[in-house]
């Protein structure tokens, strides 16, 4: 059984799954570059695979792919998309990122893209990184991405919160409303600083090869951090 925060998260993403899918079709360059480094013999897991936009690339590149997501709705969408592409070398698992239903040291590579920041509570975010480390083979690699706290759109908001933060929640916690296609649904986010991301990854026992600050939509300040790590 999932706890209340996880169940609420699942309900949220199930509710917006179809709308979300319509806005997410193009793979990110950083993910394409990472996937292109993988071997044909690799087993790859995509934690928080969403509608499968990066999972499809993994399936074409590698022997076997595993798509995991908290949302059953998004898993159905991802499965249908990959079946349309006649890709059969994949398995889909309904799974909480902090308790992955995969055996230890069985995966060669992991994508953990734009999902870590949707987990409420710092302890559970770090636990999900510990789980990532657990399923990775020795010297296995992973690409992790999160939203930047100091991006253009939310920079002023977090500067104001800096002076009013009471400690009742983690600094960086915020609800972002999904307002596409007539919806108005709050989604939990924890916006990361670069330092915090590095600290959480290291606390999980993973080795950092590279952390990149990227502007995907922002013009002045990075809106995403991408980290390449190894076990």
Radius of gyration: 17 Å
Described by its quaternary structure, the protein is: single chain
Number of helical regions: 7
Beta-strand share of residues = 25-35%
Indicate the percent of residues in helices: 25-40%
Tally of structural domains: 1
Strands ordered across the widest β-sheet? 3-2-1-4-5-9-8
CATH domain topology: Rossmann fold
What CATH architecture label applies? 3-Layer(aba) Sandwich
The CATH class turns out to be Alpha Beta
Question: Main β-sheet: number of strands, strand sense, barrel status?
Answer: 7 strands, mixed
| End-to-end C-alpha gap | 29 Å
H/E element string? HHEHEHEEHEHEEHEE
The counted number of beta strands is 9
Q: What number is the mean pLDDT?
A: 94
Can you say what the CATH homologous superfamily is? Answer: Vaccinia Virus protein VP39
What's this, in brief?
This protein is of the alpha/beta class. Helices cover 35% and strands 27% of the residues. The strands form two sheets. It has a seven-stranded mixed beta sheet with strand order 3-2-1-4-5-9-8, sandwiched between helices. Strands 6-7 form a two-stranded antiparallel ribbon.
